[in-house]
Amino acid sequence: MNRARESSVPPRSAEQGGTPDMDAAPGAASGTAPFLAQSRTASPPILLQSVSKAYRRGAQVVPVLTSVNMAVAPGEFLALMGPSGSGKSTLLNLIAGIDRVDAGSIHVGETDITTLDDADLARWRSRSVGFIFQFYNLIPVLNALENVELPLLLTPLSGRERRERARTALAMVGLSDRMDHYPGQLSGGQQQRTAIARALVADPDILVADEPTGDLDRVSAGEILDLMSGLNRTMGKTIIMVTHDPRAAERAGRVLLLEKGELADAHA
Amino acid sequence: MLTLRFVLRNLARHPLRNALTVLGIAISIMAFGLLRTTVEAWYVGVSASAANRLVARNAISLVFPLPIAYAGKIRAVEGVTHLSWGNWFGAYYVDEKNFFANFTVDMRSYLDLYPEYVIPDDQKAALLRDRKGMAVGQRLARRFGWKPGDTVPLKGTIYPGDWNVVVRAIYTGRYPNTDETQAFFHWEYLNERMKVEQPARADRVGFYMIGVDRAENAARVAGDIDARFRNSLAETLTETEQAFQMGFISMSEAIIMAIRLVSGIVIVIIMAVAANTMAMSARERMGEFATLKALGFGGGYVALLVTGEAMALSLLGGAAGCALSVPVAWVIAHVLGDYFPVFLLSGETLALQGAAAAVVGLVAGAVPAWRARRVRIADVLGR
């Protein structure tokens, strides 16, 4: 599924060419880094067929998703909405490959990720998915640069190349002057931008965001949404975002509504 | 490097908790080392034994003597190269509390057989010349402030009476485990007095010390010696010097076993403490581990982080424990020198301390690492 991207835009270090937009303003994401795929057609399509998922509470089986069918186009910005317990986060987790379906299939490009074993799935996630969490989930003992560098440990890049890429990614989210800061020294908005840089740095096809603005004030939330929109628009990243916030959902190209584990509505 | 920084910085997350754990490990590793050194101190006579030396004593018990007439027959056994003899004298200096190990020996042959007692030539000559001359270890001399030429009044217990001997030589040990708290003077001095005061005890020795040509011949020579005196009034029991020394130690086997047990328990306790620290640390960070796995890191990497942290904590404590052991062992050696003639922290003990710290780290990190490895991302990061 990565064939298109890998063949057209092989991983390159910042030193290999191009000038990263180190001065990109927060939220603008107007510049791109040389290691990031820039073609709208680079991301693979996502296709869910008859996906079901249930959780067990003791002897009780609680269905969460029931035979969900959906497709996400390459480079699409999709918002998943719905009441608590409707299965939004579960659906997001399944698409991101951090949970397993009970039935059905999920194709990302040509890969059916439901057939991958744990190790292959982890490898696939490291290459293909960038995560943006509600509470940022940064490592508190690592500074911003190290947090962003972390996913690159799974690549064959040298230490120098990793740091260069991490610097570039942080510059893209407007945190050039906060690289040495630890998460505890950053505001919520800055932490979320660091998390976005971490999600971006390995140049994944898909960004999944679970309530990315849920813990932020309105101004910071706006900045984060601007940044995500910019990534979608300028780099063609497929973004799937779970949110309760209608203002956040407005930024998406399409909104899917989940109710009681089923897709209830969709509108552009 | 980033992973190493990650592991090391995790140690600073709960400075007080981790510092107390490191302190606990340090003290436990130190205690383990010192207890082991105590056991080694017990065995110092064994470790200082030479493989090519035998000791022959009365087969019934060490308290019964052997005739001096045996000397010629023992010397005639094939393979015997040296022969000396002596008695446990068991006297004290002025007061009973001033007790120390003292023997009478056939001085010239004894010094030939025990080259580990190093005596300056002039002092050796003076010692051999003076029938009342005594050689003392330098630590014993230091304890009582003796120097060559001093007359030392000894109170006999096994051989009652006042025994005035003269310090003629102060020996130093050739090896670190050579006992420097003993004293020995001439057997002939004892024997002459016995002839006069207790003739029935004259011409008797407590034990013979025998040098053999090759260590491999020791067993055969011992058998030959015992065979010569079989069915006599005083049968001999000849054994290697090491076995002879072990005979003394076996009397305190229960105490040594208890010390060994305690040193093991100390390690088990600190293992539990370190495991508890690591379990708490890992439990608090399950969200981080799930995040790392979501990013694509495998369970092995997460387990490595936890194990690495446990190892770092434990090795830090172990290094501190080893470093503390050296001065504390020195203090014990000086304060308890009367009880432990040689109290030396050996390289082997230091290595064992390091190994114990590593085992503590591995065991303490095993269960938390296993749990971290198995963490399910969706369970921790929510649905």
Determine the oligomeric state from the structure.
heterodimer
Beta-strand share of residues of chain B: 15-25%
Shape of chain B: elongated
Tally of discrete structural domains of chain B: 2
Task: Using the CA coordinates, give the radius of gyration of chain A.
Answer: 18 Å
Mind telling me the C-alpha Rg of chain B? 29 Å
**Helix fraction of chain B by DSSP (H/I, runs of at least 4):** 55-70%
Number of helices of chain A: 8
CATH architecture of chain A: 3-Layer(aba) Sandwich
Whole-Å distance between the termini of chain B? 34 Å
Describe the 3D structure:
With 268 residues, chain A is an alpha/beta fold. Mean pLDDT of chain A is 82; it is low at 1-31. A 6-stranded mixed beta sheet of chain A has the order 6-7-8-3-9-10. A 4-stranded antiparallel beta sheet of chain A has the order 2-1-4-5, covered by helices on one side. Chain A is globular, with a radius of gyration of 18 Å. Chain A has helices at 3-8, 88-96, 118-128, 144-149, 159-172, 188-200, 218-235, 246-250, and strands spanning 46-57, 60-72, 77-81, 103-108, 111-112, 129-132, 206-210, 238-242, 254-259, 262-267. Helix content of chain A is 31%, strand content 24%. By secondary structure, chain B is an alpha+beta fold. In chain B, 56% of the residues lie in helices and 18% in strands. Chain B is built from 15 helices and 13 strands. Chain B has helices at 2-10, 15-42, 44-47, 70-75, 107-113, 121-129, 138-144, 187-197, 218-228, 241-250, 253-284, 286-294, 299-335, 347-374, 377-381, and strands at residues 53-58, 66-67, 80-88, 92-93, 101-105, 117-118, 133-137, 151-156, 161-173, 182-186, 204-205, 207-212, 236-240. In chain B, the strands form 2 sheets. In chain B, strands 1, 3, 4, 5, 6, 7, 8, 9, 10, 12 and 13 form an 11-stranded mixed beta sheet that branches. Chain B has a two-stranded antiparallel sheet with strand order 2-11. In chain B, helix 1 (2-10) packs across helix 13 and helix 2 (15-42) crosses helix 13. Chain B starts with a helix and ends with a helix. The relative contact order of chain B is 0.19. The chains are: A alpha/beta (268), B alpha+beta (383). The interface between A and B is medium-sized, with 32 and 25 residues.
